[in-house]
Structures are given as C-alpha cells and as structure tokens.
Amino acid sequence: MQRNMCRNCAGMLRQRRQIQRRKKGESFSFFSLEVKFKDVSEREHSEKRINALRQKLKELDLDGFIIPHSDEFQGEYLPAYAERLAWLTGFTGSAGSAIVLADKAAIFIDGRYTIQVVEQTDNSVIKALNIADTTPTKWLAKNLGKGARLGFDPWLLTASATDQFEKAAHGADAVLIATETNPIEVDFTMTKIESGESKIILGIAEFTDEDTMTFDMTFDTERPFEFGDNSITLKRVK
Q1: Which domains does the chain carry?
Q2: Of the segments 5-9, 74-78, 227-231, which one has the largest average pLDDT value?
Q3: Fewer CB under 10 Å: which end of the chain, C or N?
C-alpha cells in the first residue's frame, strides 16, 4: 500500500494491483476498483461491535485492547481498511484513540472533537474523555486490573506510545501484549469502476511487509476466520 495513497482522495483507493493466488502462484491484472469509507457515524452499531470485540479478545486470552486512529504508516488520513476506530465507536474524527476492557470502554479525544464525539458515540457503551483531563495511560492506571493482559497492534503504535502504554500496564501490575493480527477488521464496499456495481464484502487482511498484503474475502454474511485456498496477495507495483 502506498504511504500517501489517501492523503488527497478522502479514503478512496484507486490502484491497479498485481495479484497472485497464494496456492497456484498465477498472476494477472485485477480490474480497477475503489474501496470507500463513508464518513458517516454508525453509533447505533457500536454496542454490538464492541461486544463482538470483547468476545474475540476472550478467544485471544486478552483482557483489553488499544484502538488508535492510525495505520501502519502513522498517517492522519486513513485508507478505508484502517478506519477501525470509526467502525468500532462511530467517531469519525481524524485523531483519537479508544481502549476496550472487559467491563468498560473509553474513547480519548482532544478539544477539537468535544461536540463531535458526543454526537457520534453512545455514552452508555463507551465513555468520551478529553485528553487534557484524562490521558489513556492515566485511565489505564485506574481501570486496568492486576494481572490483566492488554493487547495492541504493534503496526499501529509508535515506539514512544508503546513505551508509555507499557509503563502504564506495568504500574497496574498488568502486561502489554503485542498481537500478531488485529482483531478488528473493517467492512468494505467494493465498486467495479466499469459497471458501477457495488457489493459489501467481508474480509480479513494481513501485512507481510510494507508492499504486500494477504487478503481473503467473502460476499457471505459471515466473515472468514482464516486465510483459505482462494486467498490472494496484493503487491504494490513500483
């Protein structure tokens, strides 16, 4: 994925990709497509999605998870696949983070988003906090239980942020755990440019390096849980 692919396209990806099937190794040119993230809050889905995340965390033996507004390149304007914070909470601002624990959740914003976060999130599901009053690490110090395992995606946190969260976890007699995959995956709408046909796809993705992503998707009602024989590998054409 290009580092700056979405800085001037508001979340739209329009790239020609070279695709290789993982099993057969055959290559072909994929039709042009666009994947869009709609900048519309879906706060009505946040309770269901946060509960689903909690169930997934149980399966991963984690007691909580950090969800920053970032992608693996630490950009402010994110491609659709990286809009995990908005998908999970309903908040569509360009900065912020959330922490989901087994029995509580909080979203952290700065003063620019005080009104927006109230309008877009469900306070009965996730509590909105201004970082000028309560930082994520201070909140963790009060709410993270002894012996808890707090997960994070190492692709999405800077080294400095990781150090801060690690200190906060240690101070609460808990441990910070880097996960191999991110338990939050965002749904996409895929549109064929030639025909205008659109379909919702459910997919999982995993970056193997800066230019390569393994991807599996389905048009069914349930998301795939593992990469199957028909998985594809997307490679950036340089």
Answers
A1: 13-37+186-235 (no CATH), 43-178 (3.40.350.10)
A2: 74-78
A3: C
Q: pLDDT band for 97, please (50, 70, 90 cuts).
A: very high
Chain centre to alpha carbon of residue 5: 17
Task: Give the model's confidence band at 45: pLDDT under 50 very low, under 70 low, under 90 confident, else very high.
Answer: confident
How many angstroms separate the CA atoms of 193 and 64, rounded?
Answer: 40
- Has residue 149 got a pLDDT over 90? yes
pTM flag (> 0.90): no
